[in-house]
Amino acid sequence: MSVSVSHITHIDNLASIIGQNCLWSDAKRIELGLLNQNIGYSHIKARRLQKPVNVASGGMIGEYVPFNFCPRSVMLYVIHRRHKDFDGGQERVLHLISDTDTVRSTNQHCFFTDIHADLDYAEQIDDFTRISELDIQRIINERYWQDFKEEKQAEFLAYESVQWRAINRIGVRSQAVADEVHVLLQLARYKPLVEVRPEWYY
């Protein structure tokens, strides 16, 4: 059972992703000294660099590339409302869309969690026959998630990197941003489909 997954990033990071031909984990990006427009909470990213993984390839959560099982994530809402580490809003945030089978075909060291991976009581699972245990339709994709905020933040994580060619679509909020993405994709040998999907935003 393959499940769609979504990684959010700022459009300012797209040229680097194309140039590197992959999405790097935070730990690897720091090791390589690559510049990055951070849109998340810095303290959570720092904490994930120290939080152990007991399945897949082990290591720390920050050594894995994170995906949600839905667009319009809880973190995107935080970005939309603006926070102390990023006040740029959601307009120029991209959804990089793939699916679990495609990522796993190029990276065997993956796992998923039943809730936000940063929580101490999140279950780390690398038995992908169990992925059907996630209630993707009724909870994770639910538009109004106040009653199950943690479950909506279940994560799919891939060790160290995800190849650029594993991204099959890029979702954007407006045609203006789509036009910018198309310009950046002129530099790429592989060009995912670009879709204007305002329903994926707040």
Question: Can you describe this structure in just a few lines?
Answer:
With 202 residues, this protein is an alpha+beta fold. It is 28% helix and 22% strand. It contains eight helices and ten strands.
What does this structure look like?
Belongs to the DarT ADP-ribosyltransferase family. It catalyses: a thymidine in DNA + NAD(+) = an N-(ADP-alpha-D-ribosyl)-thymidine in DNA + nicotinamide + H(+). Keywords: DNA-binding, Glycosyltransferase, Nucleotidyltransferase, Toxin-antitoxin system, Transferase. InterPro entries: DarT. With 202 residues, this protein is of the alpha+beta class. The chain has one domain. Helix content is 28%, strand content 22%. The chain has eight helices and ten strands. It is globular and about 40 Å long.
